[in-house]
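Work Package 4 report. The design task specified in the project plan requires that, given a folded chain encoded as structure tokens, an amino acid be chosen for each position. We show below one input record used in the internal validation round.
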């Protein structure tokens, strides 16, 4: 059977000050009346029912996930004792699914992405699931790039593969490039944006973890033997502490030989920062995106998101302003990726009330 695994452990530091450790990005409403994680669950229900959906999040967010996703059985919301990036997260979900169903196919996806053309997305997922189920391959979804983005990782694929049915062997993965490299990727025609969405059988990803991330595999093999016992929680805690902090991309996908990609174009965005919100929002005739109680004069291409206070903007251009009860962010549109540095600073200087 097919199962969804929604990864929801991040804190969304580039979305500060709205995204906080107590309530990170995936649990807030960015577009529409539902949070990002609620939208993620909703778009998957046509292919996977909620009872076959797992959410992997930090222990501190289990109650929040349970509250926002009442359709999902509570036992399917898995709490991570510490944050270790995506490889341990996926290993945890894989052993749980293998215990339930030896033939489980996992659709692994982030909790905080936006997908506008959901019908096209589901059609591509079906194709990827068939490939993973029948071949044991590791399959990912790549997004057809529309501009030389520097905020995304890239996937280079073999466009010359014959009889591919729209599924291609992956040549290499590339980290976030500089602008010149991103231009070169776009011009080459054989690079896709890395969506961070993966499809594989539970036994296949565990076999590849055994090959390429043996310490993580061994730690979770020990935990697998104690699933369903009163020792499970302690076993999972030990497994996380024994695992390296590493992404599944770096740990497995960049090294494995049976990796394939399905190119797609379905209105995808990872909504990585406030600039992405601006780009995806409806704008007025001056290019401004205004939410809340805002007065604006002689200003253009601004994103202004007010809390309870009136915000007046005069003579600003290409600026992001985000106001909350206890913090105010003002930055240039081109600097939104650096908002993470503010959160890092607050951590270092122990300003816990603002993180």
């Amino acid at each position: 059977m097919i199962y969804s695994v929604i990864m929801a452990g991040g804190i969304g530091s580039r979305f500060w000050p709205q995204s906080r450790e107590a309530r990170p990005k995936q649990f807030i409403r960015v577009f529409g009346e539902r949070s990002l994680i609620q939208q993620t669950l909703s778009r998957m229900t046509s292919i996977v029912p909620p009872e076959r959906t797992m959410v992997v999040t930090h222990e501190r967010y289990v109650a929040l996930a349970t509250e926002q996703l009442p359709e999902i059985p509570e036992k399917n919301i898995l709490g991570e004792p510490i944050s270790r990036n995506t490889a341990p997260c996926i290993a945890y979900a894989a052993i749980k699914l293998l215990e339930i169903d030896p033939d489980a196919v996992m659709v692994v996806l982030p909790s905080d992405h936006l997908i506008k053309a959901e019908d096209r997305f589901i059609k591509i997922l079906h194709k990827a699931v068939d490939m993973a189920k029948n071949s044991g391959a590791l399959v990912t979804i790549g997004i057809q790039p529309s501009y030389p983005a520097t905020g995304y990782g890239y996937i280079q694929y073999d466009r010359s593969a014959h009889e591919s049915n729209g599924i291609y062997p992956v040549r290499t993965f590339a980290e976030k490039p500089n602008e010149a490299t991103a231009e070169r990727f776009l011009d080459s025609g054989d690079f896709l944006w890395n969506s961070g969405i993966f499809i594989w059988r539970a036994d296949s990803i565990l076999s590849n973890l055994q090959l390429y991330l043996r310490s993580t595999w061994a730690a979770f093999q020990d935990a697998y033997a104690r699933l369903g016992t009163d020792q499970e929680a302690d076993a999972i805690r030990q497994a996380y502490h024994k695992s390296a902090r590493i992404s599944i991309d770096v740990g497995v996908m960049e090294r494995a030989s049976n990796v394939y990609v399905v190119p797609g174009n379905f209105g995808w965005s990872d909504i990585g920062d406030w600039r992405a919100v601006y780009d995806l929002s409806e704008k007025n005739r001056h290019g401004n995106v205004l939410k809340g109680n805002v007065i604006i004069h002689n200003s253009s291409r601004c994103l202004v998101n007010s809390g309870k206070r009136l915000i007046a903007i005069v003579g600003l251009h290409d600026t992001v302003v985000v106001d909350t009860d206890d913090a105010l962010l003002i930055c240039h549109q081109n600097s939104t990726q650096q908002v993470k540095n503010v959160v890092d600073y607050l951590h270092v200087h122990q300003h816990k009330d603002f993180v």
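The chain has eleven helices and 17 strands. Validation will be extended to a larger panel in the next phase.
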